[in-house]
Amino acid sequence: MNKVFIYVLSDGTGETAMTMTKAALVHYTDHDFNIVRCKNMRTVSQLETIIDEAFTKKAFIIHTIVSPQLRQIVRDKTAGLGLKQVDLLGPLLTELDQFFNVVDKEKEAGILHSVDEKYYRRVEAIEFTVKHDDGKLLTDLDKSDIVLVGISRTSKTPLSLFLSHKGWRVTNIPLVPNVPLPEELFKIDQRKIVGLIIEPDSLQRIRRNRLEKFGQDPGGDYARIDKIYDEIDYAKKIFAQNKRWPVFNVTERALEETATEILRVVCTRMGFKYDPEMF
After folding, report:
1. What is the pLDDT of residue 1?
2. Which of 66, 219, 228, 252 is most buried (most C-beta within 10 Å)?
3. What is the spatial distance between Cα 263 and Cα 168, in angstroms, rounded to a whole number?
4. How many degrees, rounded to 5, is the angle at CA 146 between CA 144 and CA 149?
5. Closest Cα partner for 37 from 58, 57, 63?
6. Is 69 a residue whose pLDDT tops 90?
7. What is the per-residue pLDDT across 126-169, written as a single tens digit (0 to 9) for each?
């Protein structure tokens, strides 16, 4: 069985294109497919290099690219090499332009570039944040815009993801009694670090609900009120030792409210004005 190469090009993560491609390929089970996902394709040189590589493998190209200029590059380059390509996004955008009476888009290149940059920034922030959830990756902690520190179930992950969708690269690090905080945390700009705290009764309720949701015993150490008090006391001790870290109480607070306050404080500490649309 001959191997067939499918190149999936995207200016973002490529998840949408990959999902659609795999859904289509289930109808061709008599072929051996090798799908090559090419993410963050945002320049002419990137596209030309990848298309040249695809040409050597006689690949079929599928793409989801926002920029009309870059979509045209793909069409022209593949046509010149005799490669087959499918634009999953372009036709939809064209029809939407007509529906909404959007004309002369090329005259708004500056606006389009600005929108694209915000889009790319958010995609990068989401990818960064997912990789740095729960302290999983610390080698490039200095690239974080915000670092959240707190004990389990203080909304570290939901807050991180919420902030990342606004374009902020976020790392969250768990506080665990008797487990030293990573040395890398104290080598970065301390103005980026934010502590999270919660009231004991609220935390116990959250933890019990979580355990019950997964069919586990809600009476274990994880949800015991005395253990919770110990963890919160430990967190308060850490925050007292690191007075430069602002601490936010997340008890019964909406995610968006806490996130907005964190952004305002971090922006002020970093020396620039908070703008909710900055990314």
Report:
1. 65
2. 228
3. 9
4. 110
5. 63
6. no
7. 989 999 999 999 989 999 999 999 999 999 999 999 999 889 99
Domain 117-270 falls in which CATH fold?
Rossmann fold (3.40.50)
Please give the Cα distance from 241 to 181 (Å, whole number).
12
Q: Is the fold of 3-99 the same as that of 117-270?
A: yes
Given a contact cutoff of 8 angstroms between Cβ atoms, the answer to whether 10 and 17 are in contact is yes
Report the alpha-carbon distance of residue 155 to residue 176 in Å, rounded. Answer: 15
Determine the pLDDT at residue 138.
93
Of 107-111, 166-170, 187-191, 259-263, the poorest mean pLDDT is in 107-111
Architecture of domain 3-99: 3-Layer(aba) Sandwich (3.40)
Encode 241-264: b = buried (16+ Cβ within 10 Å), e = exposed.
ebeebbbbebeeeeeeebbbebbe
What is the C-alpha separation between 203 and 225, in angstroms, rounded?
Answer: 9
User: Domain coordinates of the chain in residue numbers?
Assistant: 3-99, 117-270
Q: Tell me how far apart the 2 most distant CA atoms of the chain are, in Å.
A: 71
pTM: 0.63
Which residue is associated with the tokens 């019990």? 208
pLDDT for position 106: 47
